[in-house]
Please model this.
Amino acid sequence: MFYTDNAQLTHLSYFTALKSDDEASLDIESYPIKVLSQNEGSNILFTNWVTNRFSREEIYGINLVDDSSQLRNLIGETFDQPDAFLDHSRSIVESYLRLLQPDSAHLVIAIINNILIDDELCQGLIIGVPDDISPFLSEQVSDDMGIPIVSHGFPLTNLSYGALVLHTFKDDGYRVSLKQAFGKSVEMSHLKNDLLQLRPIEDPFHQTKSYLDMCSSFVKERLSDEPGINKVDKAEILNKSISYFKNVETFNEESFLDEVLPDEDVSSAFKQYSNSYKTEKQIEIPDSFDVSQHAVKKSQRVF
Model:
């Protein structure tokens, strides 16, 4: 969990990209935006805009693999070398656009100070995509007359989607929060899986979600081959699984099996499936952990 109540925007750049005339590359234009003091209303507006609606509980880390080392180093340099912010920002944008290969794109890169996580103040780096560009009407005053002007821009409500990299746990791949948008699954996949190469961290949210995902997969895959188990039985197991997690603060696998899977044959099949599932997914789920109700609600939507 992190908080941005007292966060302050310190650096902001806006980038546009269009296919070049030969369509072999993207022409990228960068626009550094002057950041005003914390007391200025525009700073508060911009800070709220770039930090709004990032997930406070669903936190990831960047995979500690060789493929991600260049990006991790670039993120570190962006934090540590504020005078070179524009150059580092452009490099991040170029890396993302090489993966996405769009005909055109608009991105923002920002640095935020005073984000609170685990009682520690840290910086945050935002890689974000604003809402779609649209026309708006403004007015220019000349000789006491208002002249309407049609311009193009995006609303300062919130970003369409993006990632917030928190400058903490650097040696463990930082901590990363996402803002996801409906209808942007391809773009989010490139950002999350290809550019940042994110992995779940071992916290209550991911432990809860991973265990519920495993329960759902067990019922839909393994129990389909189990004689004497019909659709009603499978629905009951799923409902009992969600109900168990809703009503406990701490998960205990032994009590879960007693309550949700009292049949010895089904319970034994689940234990075998659990071992193979964890090996295949390369995850570790302890026998006991604190339950995240946010993860329970999220899992319930697809159960």
Notes: The first strand starts at residue 2 and ends at 3.
